[in-house]
Amino acid sequence: MRFLDEYRREADAQKFVRAIEQLVTRPWTIMEICGGQTHNLIKFGIDRLLPQAVTLVHGPGCPVCVTPLELIDKAICIAQQPGVIFTSFGDMLRVPGSNSDLLSARARGADVRMVYSPLDALTLAQKNPDREVVFFAVGFETTAPGNAMAVWQARELGLRNFSILCAHVLVPPAIRAILASPDNHIQAFLAAGHVCTVMGTREYEPIAAQYRIPIVVTGFEPLDLLQGLYMALRALEEGRWGVEIQYTRSVTRQGNQAAQQLMYQVFEVCDRQWRGIGLIPASGYRLRATWAEFDAERRFNLVDVRAQESPLCIAGQILQGLKKPPHCPAFGTECTPEHPLGAPMVSSEGACAAYYQYGQHA
Fold it and tell me: Does 325 map to a domain?
């Protein structure tokens, strides 16, 4: 495939590595926000090609990983209701709740189905008018337009048997929370190209200005990541701060304004609990009151659920970049992809899964 050749050439990667080696004069710590970036940094060994002075830490950019435990338990509760078809992307099916997961609920008889799009769930609602179809709307700003479109189309089609369990989280408030922490040691960020394709980069500009840090929006291929790292390190070495776009083939400052308009029509900003991190103000989306008929939490009248993480799991510290997966005493022993204690070992974007899959156990 053309993009594989264009963005994975070893000779070009080595040029960036040499340029970074020549550029760096002191220690720097950079956080990549997106879990997809984390996986490719580990998969292609980019973290091991960099000078020892450059430390990469992994942020909370895995939406599956930060979906709160209480919401997983609510999803299982809904799925077990008579007459419900519960739908979700594949990663969410294995994320552990307090005592179970959605796959286990299916094994016990719940009608839980993996879909590839919220529109697949909408089609199920059309084909099963006597069933309640619920879609687990998880994700950052990347997936929010598609989920908003599904809700909008459900109203247009007059579907009264479709709802979403909304778990959307937003990237900029998470960056602010990390930078405001007294334990913060991050000096620059690689921001997620797909999120900024939708939202643009304007939201990041006041963050960069307030904390005087570089934020570079990058893609996901090896050369994207190496170029993004070079841009961030050059800004650090030159004492500059601000927002730069490496992923220019997809990202603009304004973003996709049509998608934003639809999202703001259906969703509104709300406070959101992040798994392992806690409450981050104004860090999520929920359905507006005018769209409440499609809110699964209201439709099924769910009460507050109290849940507690495994005491062995340090996912919260990993998601905040304070520790790496091998620092967890349960990593690779009590916690494996087959028997995960926390979401980062399950998700295809989870840091723990990346380290486990690509052999970085030490």
Answer: no
Residue 183 CB-density burial (10 A; 0-12 exposed, 13-18 middle, 19+ buried): exposed
- Degrees (nearest 5) of the Cα angle 185, 189, 195? 140
Per residue in 162-211, pLDDT tens?
999 999 999 999 999 999 999 899 999 999 999 999 999 999 999 999 99
Tell me the whole-structure pTM to 2 decimals: 0.89
The answer to whether the beta carbons of residues 347 and 95 sit under 8 Å apart is: yes
Q: What are phi and psi of 192, to 5 degrees?
A: -80, 125
pLDDT tens, residue by residue, 5-55: 788 888 999 999 999 999 999 999 999 999 889 989 999 999 999 999 999
What are the helix (H) ranges across the chain? 2-7, 10-23, 35-43, 46-49, 63-66, 69-79, 102-107, 118-127, 144-157, 171-180, 193-199, 205-211, 222-237, 257-266, 296-299, 315-319, 351-357
For residue range 51-80, what is the model confidence (pLDDT) as tens digits? 999 999 998 878 888 888 889 999 999 999
From 200, 222, 245, give the residue that closes a domain: 245
Q: Domain range holding 185?
A: 2-64+171-245
Same domain (yes/no): 269, 147: yes
Burial of 77: CB neighbours in 10 Å, binned 0-12, 13-18, 19+: middle
Cβ contact 58:316 at 8 Å: no
